[in-house]
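This follows on from our talk about sequence and fold. Please put the record directly below this note.
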Amino acid sequence: MNKTINLSPTIRNYLTLKRALGREYAHEEWVLESLNTFLQACKAEELTNAWFECWCQGFSQLTPTVRRGRMRVVRNFCLYRSRTQPGCYMPDLHLFPAPNQPTRPYIYTGSQIASLLKAADQLTAQSLFPLRPQVYRLAIVLLYTAGLRRGELVRLLLSDYIRTERTLHVRESKFHKSRYVPLSADACAELETYLARRRALRLPMQPDSSLLWNAYCGGGPYTGAGLAQGIRELLRAANVRRQDGSIPRVHDLRFTFAVHALVRWYRAGVNVQNKLPMLAAYMGHVSIVSTEYYLPFVPELSTEASSQFCKQYGAAVQPLTEDRP
């Protein structure tokens, strides 16, 4: 009697290896368990191209990038599986759907950040969101001045703000890395104003309370999706839009933080290459390769980089004359 395939033991070993290397792999686990459940429901004896294509049909309505991502998860797992099971099925990467073109990041201007803060001040408090104006103002300040990821921000506790050292303790973020993030004077002032308002309203101030607190479901943090939706409403209210009229992404605030940091360094005349490892550590990256993703060659950087080059090497660059090749 033929036996239905069960990939669970191999999946478990694969995830154990990846997590030992510092990967979280929660999404990958979900994808692989979905494939295993599908194969067992179909009583498949082995993972083959036909079964793989049938499984992919189950999410054919999703975007090419999402479909490609799930298919790559399976292919990486099959590469691992082939080490102990030579000849096992290997999805063909060339047959995967082409990914969508990446969205070009939008770099906010200082005046647009000011408009967002003004729009936040005009929000009204609600019974379940008594700190609504203050929360969104603080969120914009921390996303812009500290370059936090949205998920990092909503997970912050009151105890993560270390007043004496003027830092935030970002715990167990991407790649299981924790870090201390020094804050600017303006960010500290915003935090103190927010906490003073919170105390005045006699809202929870225990160290393990969420920094971005609301009364929904008995008190707790904002969700990442809920915070993003609120910020998008502020973008519309402040009329901050791309050239095509669309609303910029909330994640673009992190790009803006990185780009503006480089612009300040260029203008200060410091060695930017020496500063990149510091920026990578500040943003919670494993290496500067990840940080460079947040540094698109936008006009602001182009102008400052060209100016810095001219200051350093302008005298060595001579214009061509008619008698020179």
